[in-house]
């Protein structure tokens, strides 16, 4: 597949609290065919650890 399914963008950034639900969202994107783009960004908002993970749709020749 050369384009992401369901009209999804080629580049995505998922964000949210560092919990199982966030990990599940990233895992689902990988299962669709996305690849991680570098490492995650992590911050603390005074209450929770918040993470962001960029994902890209691979370009294959």
Automatic annotation (TrEMBL):
Domain DUF1737: 10-55
Protein name listed in UniProt: DUF1737 domain-containing protein
Species: Streptomyces lancefieldiae
